[in-house]
Amino acid sequence: MRMFRNDYSEGAAPQVLAALVATNDEQCVGYTEGDPHCERARELIRAACGREDVAVEFAIGGTSTNLVCVNGLLRDWEGVICTPDAHINVHETGAVAATGRSVLPTRDEDGFLSVAEAERVWRFQTGTGRHMTRPAMIYISNTTELGGVWSLSRFDAICDWAASHGLKVFVDGARMASALTSPAAEGLTLEHLAARADAFYLGGTKNGMLFGEAVVISDPGLRDAFPYLIKERGGLMAKGRLLGVQFEALFTPDADGDLPYWKLARNANERAFRLRDELVSLGFEAYGEAPSNQQFFAFEPEVAQRFAEAAGCEVFQELPDGRLLTRFVCSWATTNDDVSELVAFARSL
Amino acid sequence: MRMFRNDYSEGAAPQVLAALVATNDEQCVGYTEGDPHCERARELIRAACGREDVAVEFAIGGTSTNLVCVNGLLRDWEGVICTPDAHINVHETGAVAATGRSVLPTRDEDGFLSVAEAERVWRFQTGTGRHMTRPAMIYISNTTELGGVWSLSRFDAICDWAASHGLKVFVDGARMASALTSPAAEGLTLEHLAARADAFYLGGTKNGMLFGEAVVISDPGLRDAFPYLIKERGGLMAKGRLLGVQFEALFTPDADGDLPYWKLARNANERAFRLRDELVSLGFEAYGEAPSNQQFFAFEPEVAQRFAEAAGCEVFQELPDGRLLTRFVCSWATTNDDVSELVAFARSL
Amino acid sequence: MRMFRNDYSEGAAPQVLAALVATNDEQCVGYTEGDPHCERARELIRAACGREDVAVEFAIGGTSTNLVCVNGLLRDWEGVICTPDAHINVHETGAVAATGRSVLPTRDEDGFLSVAEAERVWRFQTGTGRHMTRPAMIYISNTTELGGVWSLSRFDAICDWAASHGLKVFVDGARMASALTSPAAEGLTLEHLAARADAFYLGGTKNGMLFGEAVVISDPGLRDAFPYLIKERGGLMAKGRLLGVQFEALFTPDADGDLPYWKLARNANERAFRLRDELVSLGFEAYGEAPSNQQFFAFEPEVAQRFAEAAGCEVFQELPDGRLLTRFVCSWATTNDDVSELVAFARSL
Amino acid sequence: MRMFRNDYSEGAAPQVLAALVATNDEQCVGYTEGDPHCERARELIRAACGREDVAVEFAIGGTSTNLVCVNGLLRDWEGVICTPDAHINVHETGAVAATGRSVLPTRDEDGFLSVAEAERVWRFQTGTGRHMTRPAMIYISNTTELGGVWSLSRFDAICDWAASHGLKVFVDGARMASALTSPAAEGLTLEHLAARADAFYLGGTKNGMLFGEAVVISDPGLRDAFPYLIKERGGLMAKGRLLGVQFEALFTPDADGDLPYWKLARNANERAFRLRDELVSLGFEAYGEAPSNQQFFAFEPEVAQRFAEAAGCEVFQELPDGRLLTRFVCSWATTNDDVSELVAFARSL
């Protein structure tokens, strides 16, 4: 059975792999600087964002992107407000602190940074002037760690709050394609993101690329900083064109005018929604609202164990009632047959 | 009226100032290396600790000491478990992160690091291997941020837990003299601390010195590291003998065999206990147990405001019921007359 | 005409690309941990090194590898001795300093770290104890920045010196394949490197891979540190198997028992030697001894300019006599026809 | 005999000590924020600088000041150009690198940063864009490491060069009082420094204070940064008033309108000049031009040894001819009798 462990289990989507093979023998200058593929990918992404004035840079993975952006948006003594479950707070081995900056988690429990909690942290941290880390940006991720999707109104509310306090907005978009193609986006578009965020990224690793994230930067300081920081932090790729080739493949419109980047994400989402609906109809209990390509269930330990063995799904944590929070992830590669096979297995339990 | 704002409002205790004046014209080599005063202070402190094999180093202040010790006890990707209100977590402008290390706060709300919470953080942080900051030490402070005092049994419990998990123990002792002379120490002595902690410090700044902390180090790694780190972090004093002269003055036994270091702290504690008892007897409500030289009260805003104006006491935070948590601090310099004057003022409210 | 600009202008060598395509649809766990390709690549590299007890880790590029290894081999206040032209000293945007460590360059001018200069720096830096950065490792690169190749005797001499001073040895092997297949290696083998260096790496990016370096670690401290540091510094690849697949392809012996890794390098070297010989026979002046895949010439400015335009070769610096130091690089992809075309062009000048 | 080892061997000058004693019992708020002594010292220093618009901040020692200022004037990937013997390059245990910034030494051998060498480093470092640390400031020290004094014209030349390249100017003034009172200043005044440098400091530790440096900041970025950075780096003093009291004492004009700060330095200089003249007249060879309170001589090893034993002077390094470079330092505390005693000893050799 296909593993439902995560969305980076396979290699590249067919069109990405084909582009890599087709361009393999070209000679290009390195470091994402000036080769035709990176230049073209930049143009396509700017067009998709509806802004000609943003910088588009490339990175290899999420942690590298996050540490460079957080570092570049903050001065040495400043900090970033985020939820406690934020990737930068728990899953990156202290990468932000390793660049000298501080992470300031709120107490939000649902993966969404709330205005109330952001305000509470802001007040606390600015109460004694220089004796505390000064918050200077917010970090949110779309989708959230729990598969949540930011709606237009929720996003605007936190951006409004940040603007009113002079904080910058950074959006981790490792799964942005899944988020923006979800019905739960309720009007949040790439153009809107590009209009409001100081920086964000469009994840490729979890949406059909071998690796790669495209960072869209409005903030003038980070714009100057990024090219140096990505090199200084070891994230600049010698054969930079690999990043360009892959994003070019996904942001070049298909015959129907749609982008492969969105199509791959829609496939992942649709498989995930079907998986969810079918398991629920079998009587399993979905956990939280996850209108994206990750689906969470609360299983009895034995059931969780059997799903993990059969479908490679990940057991996240123990819930207070002893059940285990279990995650299924669909990707561009997940087929309807794969979901059917999982459902059949679920039925057999 | 004397300010009850903090215990570093005045200059030096008389015996400290006298020692500085008496030795002013001596010529000494610098950097706490090899001058007779630092050497003598080291001997006296080792004797007070009952261990000849510990290293005794000197630093100028608490933040400098904390950042050097936390940095030196951890490797780059490791973190320190502490309470959320820990000085290193909130009051040092991200000093630990600025050295590249991570702070891992628990949810303890009373200032004491609990075994249960330390265990919870440990489990969480070690759950996914290298993807998370690995805890490698605990940080506790004695007294705590809320004026609490570690008892022998409580201290042994957390040390036992740390030992069983291979974590190092560091004790912030900015107010160690007040803690160890408190009845609430219940048997926790300097000798015991020196026997169990990998490193700790004896605060001078808040106990009658112009400045200065004496760091007692058992951990072999930190022992090698400290002399380099304190220089690299800008904390090494050129006229290092100033630290030696002051600690020598406070750790040279008086005629009665007692140390001025303890005597100054006892004065601070006793004044604080009387202040507390008198205010309570006037009907004011003490907040929490603070058997040390800091006393906390919950006042109506107007009352807090009047105390703050008259006695310089600090308003810490708003309590859920709208009252203001207010702190009075006594020091070696606080006299019984000072307390009487404050009580008279309180009575007039 | 083929560009002779560098050895990372093309994509992947055919056998590497074929392996990536062949394995594309497999589902693997991530992060180079436990997927069959990384495991197999580790085994193959250990076998080629003749040591079962070394750790083999993977990184995406040279700067990432260098900063993790230098950071992990040093404590905070320690430094690394290297030549002034060392990649870590000049070409990595301060990546080592960004991790808090210091680079201590000698005055060696030929790209080889000499015992005499290493000794001079060592003495200078240890002269005043903790007031100076303490050297704790040496960094050499093979090939050197100027295309030089370490011979067995030269390598042993610097390792002996390092051992006698308690310094660790790290070898940057971005072009290790070219170095070890050069006649100038004079007996320096992969097995010997693995026996003497505390850590080194086998470059893939410049020898036919899309990207990737394999780090061979003997030092126990770095062994523990690397998995955490590579994550913390943003260098851990989600689809880690890509690194395994590529190294597996190059370290699986061909029918003749030879490794593709060496064969690709031999091609690059042989093309470079022919290029050199032919240009010299045309009267151009080779600069220095570069018995590897990089060749340096001293050209009149106009000549340098024309070569740069036609063959994309890089002008390194102005020499004291006004001529321009110009570099030609051959790769696994350079054919004899490519060299012939360049020579024909040179003849036409 | 008085030691001529350095200018921080004694405690405080009489007027400084008297001020500390006189103010000892005052209660002040902490951290150099808002106590009357720090405020008054700031006013006096601004007046002496002839600029009302500069920020005046306080630090405890030179390394702390240097690391905060260099960090605060640079972004993460930028570097500071300085001479190879610069304190930040060799004598601070990598303190700048420990904050993540890079030191870019020239090849100047006389302690003065030259325009030619600064230009060479600038060109080299900016040659390949983001692949190298970008120079963004220059660091000079007055006096230099070899006791040299910047003249007005030399200072203006390097400032002009820096301005033309958009680099900031920072002056380490650990011995600024000696420099500005030297005849070799040739018109370089405190007012001029304050008009041209982006930041500099007035050293107290080496000119009669127990400790303390006053940092004068024009650069708007550093102005915002300093209060946070000094705390984050552990350099903020709890009893901050100690810094204010001491600078207040030295910058309050005497009855004759002159500042004690200059008078103490003139004493040191004049004793040093006499020492130099007398030793030269005895046939000893002065080394270099050191028109300040440090004097360097080249002695036969045996002679150097005897001076070191008798007068505590420091042997700096071995000269190429086998003689030893030896340093005598005079301070505010050095008397004419002290010099006479040394000269008598020299005569006896």
Describe the structure.
With 349 residues, chain A is α/β, with parallel strands linked by helices. The first copy, chain A, has 2 domains: 14-251, Type I PLP-dependent aspartate aminotransferase-like (Major domain) (Aspartate Aminotransferase, domain 2); 260-348, Aspartate Aminotransferase, domain 1. Helices cover 43% and strands 16% of the residues of chain A. Chain A has 14 helices and 11 strands. The longest helix of chain A has 22 residues, at 260-281. Chain A is globular. Chains in contact: A-B, A-C, A-D, B-C, B-D, C-D.
Concise account of the structure shown:
The structure is a homotetramer of 349-residue chains. With 349 residues, the first copy, chain A, is α/β, with parallel strands linked by helices.
CATH domain class of the largest domain in chain A: Alpha Beta
CATH superfamily of the largest domain in chain A: Type I PLP-dependent aspartate aminotransferase-like (Major domain)
Query: In which range does the helix fraction of chain A lie?
Result: 40-55%
Low-confidence stretches of chain A: none
Largest interface: A-C, 52 and 52 residues
Which whole number gives the mean pLDDT of chain A?
A: 97
Rg of chain A computed from alpha carbons, rounded to a whole number of angstroms: 20 Å
- What is the β-strand count of chain A? 11
Number of domains of chain A: 2
CATH architecture name of the largest domain in chain A: 3-Layer(aba) Sandwich
Our count of helices of chain A gives 14
